Amino acid sequence: MKFPFKNYPNQKGESDFWPVLQVQISNPAKHSPPSKRFEALIDSGASRCIFHANIGKAIGFDIEKGEPEDTFGISGKPSPIWIHRAGLYVAGSIITVRAGFSYEIPLAAVLGRIGFFDNYKITFDSSVSPPGIEIERIARI
Amino acid sequence: MTDESEVTLTVGNCISYVSTSPIHLGGFVATDTASQRLDLLRSAPLNAWIALSEDESRIVATGASYQEVAEGSEKAGEPNPIIIKTPVRWLAFSV
Question: Could you tell me the maximum CA-CA distance found in chain A, to the nearest angstrom?
Fold first, then answer.
């Protein structure tokens, strides 16, 4: 499946293309209905998928009862996350991922290597207009 | 009107269905829809949660939490919004 990058503003009054997908998550432990769709940044530099704790709380995760872990971004400052099993609805499929929940992430979510890139072959193509992402589910036997 | 707009509603931003109509090119360069989305995001409150209508043409709810905008979008008659968390400032993103 192919998806276009999405336009976001930048500080210079211009715009920037971000590789985002519209996803939903659910809480398998509580058989919760999935969240509303939200935009998640595809980030091959992120070790794992991280969702804003705000979304997790809304669908019944007891965030701080997850497995605690520290993570850091480009600033180098450690930031706490809590790991939970979550259902991830993406590109027409549902997978279960061990994902982090963070109160400090500045956007709704990032889709990282553990859980996302190890389940999908992702191709970024900025050489074409429009730029976009191609996603192919990796078959597991 | 062809069925193309119905297809767009069904598949979200999937571009497997090629169309030359700008209205289908949600995130693309130089379309009315893309600049409309940018205008919406620029007008949205910062460090907040916002809900866009399913066709990304308007903001249907804003709030301080995901829950608030999820409920707000239902009240606004938009059960299938697209929720975005806006940053403190619109900057280049590096995680």
Answer: 48
Structural domains counted in chain B: 2
Listed by number, the residues of chain B in 33-72 with a beta carbon closer than 8 Å to a beta carbon of chain A are 34, 37-38, 41-42, 49, 51, 65-67, 70
With respect to CATH, is domain A2-7+16-71+79-137 assigned 3.40.50.300? no
In chain A, residues 44-73 whose CB comes closer than 8 Å to chain B: 45-46, 52, 54-55, 57-58, 73
Q: B82: which 2 tokens?
A: 């697209």
Q: Which domain holds residue B60?
A: 44-89
The reply to whether B4 falls in a domain is yes
pLDDT surpasses 70 at A123: yes
pLDDT number for residue A104: 93
pLDDT tens string A24-80: 999 999 888 999 999 999 999 999 999 999 999 999 999 999 999 999 877 778 899
SS3 A48: strand
Mutation for testing the B interface, residue in A15, A24, A51, A128 having most B CBs under 10 Å: A15
φ, ψ (nearest 5 deg) of residue A30: -110, 10
Backbone angles phi, psi at A95, to 5 degrees: -130, 160
Find tokens 């999405």 and name the residue: A6
Reported ipTM: 0.93
Q: For the whole prediction, is pTM greater than 0.90?
A: no
Cβ(B64)–Cβ(B51) under 8 Å? no
